[in-house]
Structures are given as structure tokens and as C-alpha cells.
Amino acid sequence: MTQHQEEAAQEGTTLPINSPDVFLPTELLATLSHELRSPLAIIKGYVTSLLLYDQMITPEERLDFLHSINEGSDRLAQTIDRILELTQLENGSVIIRPALVDLFQLLRTVTEEVEQEQAILQREHAVNLRQIQADGTTTAEDYLVLAEQPRLHTAFKNLLDNAFKYSPTGSPIDITIMPVQREQVSKHLKPSLNGRADTSELLSVTIRDYGNGIPPDQLERIFERLHRIEMNLIHEIHGLGLGLTISKHIIELHHGTIWAESTLGSGSTFSVILPRTTETTLAQNTYLIHNTVKD
């Protein structure tokens, strides 16, 4: 941070946009430029063709052009929406409106949605979603959290999208929901979770893929905005690299925590810990959600 930036932070002011201390890294600008210009180029190209060669284009070609324009528009809108969402999350302007959410039902909906979207891109995986007790046995018990469902949906969708993108087509993806013992994950927990007396009040969601894994030198950076894993296998994957960053902000906004573990050649596991909500903890969790502070 420069001297001007430190002074502005101390005074609670912001630097003007044309200040030399306000800048974006070259690689960040390059990524933004690519992700915004690519869909624009698609839209522009097909619209130009429709205008110039309207009488020569068959109905079938016209329909194909319109589908491509629609896809380009969707991609552009998604990019802009992600940038806006991350901006709101980073500046603290997001207000959570919590309700009881069944994690199993939520993750089943997320799985179905991602499977449908990825099937269009010919990325198909066998997703194994299970809910187990601490001893590993399957259970139908309700695992509830107090959360804003659309936000939590987005967080888990980003994680599952990531697993689909970075693992070979056809490989399995395992999603497991279970109560977690505090001592097993204490080093990952935020103070708001680590201070809980009842270990049964924590729930773990793990998303395990069997892809190439994440290089050790990049594992600590994967939640940074616009960070993309540099591997030849995935060079055709589009995106700004904001999904994991957004997921991290959303999970932490719900007083949870998230981290990743990976072994090259064996795949990666993303773990999420959230406060479990029961009748005895509902009042406490409601207070926590409405009094969100950064740990």
C-alpha cells in the first residue's frame, strides 16, 4: 500500500479514480478485457451478418445466429453480474435476510441445475450426494442452517461448477454433508464458530473431485479474485475467476469458513463449515446473522 493509500484509509476517504495510486494489475485488466470483449465480438459478428446478408441467410442459419447472440448476451450479462456481486460483497453493502435452509435439499437443487447446464457443454459427471452422521452412516435427519437461500445457492453452485470444469468428463464428484467435531477442524474455524461449546452445532459440506488437483504454489491463492489455475489441461475454460472469491465472501457472511485441500494427480476437496441451526440454536444464530462483523 502506498503512502497516499494509507493516509486515505486512515482518514476514511477514497482516492479519486484518476489517482496514480488507484490501478488494476495488467493481467487483471487483460482478463477483464477478454471476458467482456469476447461475447461482444460474437454478438457484433452475428448482428453484422444479419444486417448485411439478410436476404441470403436461410431460416435455419438465422436461428443459429440468434442462438449464438443469445448465448453471447448471457455470458456478457453473467460477467457483469459477477463483477457487481463481488463489488457489493467486498464493500459490505450486502444485507442477509436469513431463513431456515435444508442443506440436503439445497445441494440437490444445485446439483440438478449444474448437471443440466454442464450437459450442454458436454461435461458430464456422476455426482454422489449423501448425508451422513458423524460415524459415517447414512441419515435422513434434517441438517438445517440459517441463511439466505439464493446466496448460499450461489456459493455452492460456484463450487460445483468448479469441480465440473477442472476434472475429466465422466469422473465422479462426491458431495457429503455431515456434523463436524470442532477439534477436527479448529485450525480452519473463525472465532465466531470456534467458540461454540456444542460441537454438534457445526455442519460440514465437502465437494470432492478427482481431477488433476491444484499445484501447491497456487492452493493458497485460489480464493483471490481473478485467480485462475494455470494448467494446460484447462486452457479452454472461460471465466473471470471470481466464482471461488464470491463463494468465500458468501460463506463468511454466514459466519462459516471455507478452505481447499488438493493432491496433484488425485483431485481436490473443498470444505465448507456452517453453523447448524436447531430449535435451541435458532435464536443465537439469528443474532449472529443480523450482527455480522468480520472476524
From TrEMBL:
Segments forming a coiled coil: none
Tagged with keyword Repeat: no
SUPFAM superfamilies: ATPase domain of HSP90 chaperone/DNA topoisomerase II/histidine kinase (SSF55874), Homodimeric domain of signal transducing histidine kinase (SSF47384)
UniProt KW Phosphoprotein keyword: yes
Catalytic activity: ATP + protein L-histidine = ADP + protein N-phospho-L-histidine
Gene Ontology MF term list: phosphorelay sensor kinase activity
Domain Histidine kinase: 31-278
SMART domains hit by this protein: HATPase_c (SM00387), HisKA (SM00388)
E.C. number: 2.7.13.3
Alphabetical UniProt keywords: Kinase, Phosphoprotein, Transferase, Two-component regulatory system
Pfam families: HATPase_c, HisKA
Protein name (record): histidine kinase
